[in-house]
Target: Transmembrane protein 161A
Amino acid sequence: MALMGIQLVVSLLAASIMQRMAPHYSFARWLLCNGSLYRFKHPSEGELCALAGKQMPKQTRRDRRQNGESKPLTVPKDIDLHLEKAPINALDALVLRFFLEYQWLIDFAVYASGVFMFTECYYSFVDASKEVNIGAIWCVLTVLFSLKTLHTLMSHYFSSEEGGERSVCLAFGFLSLLVAMLVLVVREDYLEFGLESGFSSLFDNLEVFTRQHGYAEWSIPVTKLTVKLGLAGICAYIGALLAFPGLRMAQTHLDAVQLNAGRPHIQILLHMSFLSPVIVLILWVKPIARDFLANAPLGKTTVTIVSSETFDSMRLGIIVALCLLRLAMTRYHMQAYLNLAQKWVEQMKKEAGRIAAIDIQRKVTRIFCYLTVITLQYLVPVFLILFSTLALKSLGGFSWRADVEQTPGVTPALIMPTVAPVLPGGLDEDEEGMDDMEEDVQATVAHLTEAFTALKSVLTPLFFRGFFAFLTWWVAACQVISSLFGIYFHQYLMQN
Model:
């Protein structure tokens, strides 16, 4: 199995370009600073005093604090305040919370998509079955980095002094654990993940692998029940990570629909984007999706509308298209979030009493400072579904073309290759040094080849099909649960 191929060269080139181009050009920075999004500036104390009909105090806030005057400047809540709009520029983006994490993850996902598309084109023209699929590795890394980013955001909620966010995450975690345990006991006749066959392939190949390496008496100390319990724990963790992204998605969806009230075609796309996880769930329900298309009832007979291979390709294509639709709707959701500043001001005008000027400035500024957090909460779940689907396609042995046979490999553990010895000869010191270096490179490549061969012999495409199919479905399920609860919360509970 070749390692030092053109795929590795392109992968290293993409990593180098991403590192060198990040300070000069970043897709993540362009997404926020391309002029399509605008923020609201907080009013100064002078503007608030002018609107309140009072004279601006001569002492500044710093002078009052130094003189021991703790009484803040207050203005009536019903003043005629209108926030000034301004396009977001690169300097504004530097003050945003978690901006570096946001920029790195978005850029990595973009380059991972490029590497994946290159590997797909490469595999369509060259028989590279013995090579390591570098594009699949980038997809898996994107999934792991996305989970790490969500973990960082959830840690921020857990460090909050109020503790309300912590309770929400724990509640969704326990709810996800219960739902995952129910889903894992559903038969394959209803939810066709392929986990049973995938785990059976994993255990069988692992047993063969251990026997080939002299561990004939060693037995696997785990069972399928233990693996499913561990998988349910992972599902609970993912459910806790996706709690606030789903709640925020519900709020931005309602605001985006209201913001585009005069554009019905945009509203239709927003509704389709919001309901896309539901479509992902249905695609894995066998009686509704595969059986309806492969064995459609027509009277007393059944008609095959599409073949099983065609359905697998269609399912992957539909999921990718839905993810692209969600990515296309990013700007509308982010602008709807930024409009919360003006929305809060309009709500404040309806209240009686007075409010400190610093509280108005903090509220308006805080909404803008958390823009990258909201963007990550919107994009990371899309990345989880998208790159899990791409990894499912590459590692599961699927094809984008419906006419290609898609039989997953179940080859048991293979015998490890050996390195060809180098015959000694009469060489000078320079030639010996070059030969030693070449031998070291060959030995390193041989060891890496041996490791990847062992990994490929144990983790077969049959296992990857079950694991990534379940991961894709579960992320969509968590989004449906949290976003629907968010719709109920913002539509009914908040209004009451």
User: Anything to note?
Assistant: Residues 6-61+89-410+460-493 form one domain.
